[in-house]
Amino acid sequence: MPVPASTRLRALLNDPSQIIVAPGVYDGISARLALNAGFGALYMTGAGTSMSALGVADLGLATMTEMKQNAEMIANLDRSVPVIADADTGYGATLNVARTTASYIAAGVAGFHLEDQVVNKKCGHLAGKQLVSKEEYLARIHAAVETRKRLESDIVIIARTDALQSLGLEESLNRLEAAVNAGADVAFLEAISTREELEAVCARFKGKAPVMYGMVQGFNAYKVTVQEAQAFGVQIIVYAAVCLTPSFLAVSQALKTLKETGDTEQYSGQGTPHKLFDACGLKELVDFDRLIADSIQN
Ligand SMILES: C[C@](O)(C(=O)O)[C@H](CC(=O)O)C(=O)O
């Protein structure tokens, strides 16, 4: 029996000398490229899923089913590489959160984060976010923890709070601490923008729970390298936009060039689309097909 991805993620988390670096992926190509680049974990960005699967900005429009479907595809490209997936608010009340947890477990997701925004949420870096009460947030965490227990899973539950913007640092840390006491495994303070905030979350959870940091370039996120994050005590760092930003910029440029010049020949010497097929498993698929054909003939 192969080791479940959640168990692998737990093993990584149990070693505080390691930092888990998870690039944000949102579709088959970005996930394949991140796997081919050798990352030991992936992060399924909800913002990226919303934009790539639905064509809309991250305003809580993606449903649980759409999120789970994307997470399942990504998690099953290489089951030995754990995928941490965005589960937003859990998509409803307690029973919805339980269903989300069960669905993510069945999909092969290794870990997921649950936050305290209202169901019609916004990307964590936008203004005007609204929160549910601490009690309602903790009910979400309890529902996930209880479901995990009933399904005998070890999926990693990451508590995220978006409270920094409206309630401030101390109340945000209190919310995360209560979530960890309720059985969440990891603390994720969303939209950190200063060194003090990053230091404070690491200090509060030192020896109690691993800390996750969301490093989104271009927003107001406090900028750290992987090495600096590790020195602060961060154990998971996710780069939600690392694939989104270059794909947005490069594709926009290529389309502009086609529109203006009527030509795509500047890419002709690059060896694509063949290289892209190779990046997405062409050789393995052809080899498999041949193996079966040979086995029928013999
Ligand atoms: C982490 C995040 O939830 C995501 O969906 O990747 C987003 C990131 C983004 O919008 O770039 C967030 O809310 O921070």
**How many H/I helical runs?**
12
Strand content: 5-15%
Query: Sheet with the most strands?
Result: 8 strands, parallel, barrel
Reading off the top of the CATH hierarchy, the class of the largest domain is best stated as: Alpha Beta
- The CATH homologous superfamily of the largest domain is named Phosphoenolpyruvate-binding domains
| CATH topology label of the largest domain | TIM Barrel
Strand order, biggest sheet?
Answer: 1-2-3-4-5-6-7-8
GO molecular function: methylisocitrate lyase activity
Catalytic activity: (2S,3R)-3-hydroxybutane-1,2,3-tricarboxylate = pyruvate + succinate
Organism: Talaromyces pinophilus (Penicillium pinophilum)
Keywords: Lyase
Structure write-up:
The structure is a single chain. The protein has 298 residues and is α/β, with parallel strands linked by helices. It folds into 2 domains: 5-248, TIM Barrel; 270-298. It has 12 helices and 8 strands. It has an 8-stranded parallel beta barrel with strand order 1-2-3-4-5-6-7-8, surrounded by 7 helices. The structure holds alpha-methylisocitric acid (MIC). Alpha-methylisocitric acid is lined by residues 24, 45-47, 58, 86, 123-125, 190, 214, 216, 240-241. Keywords: Lyase.
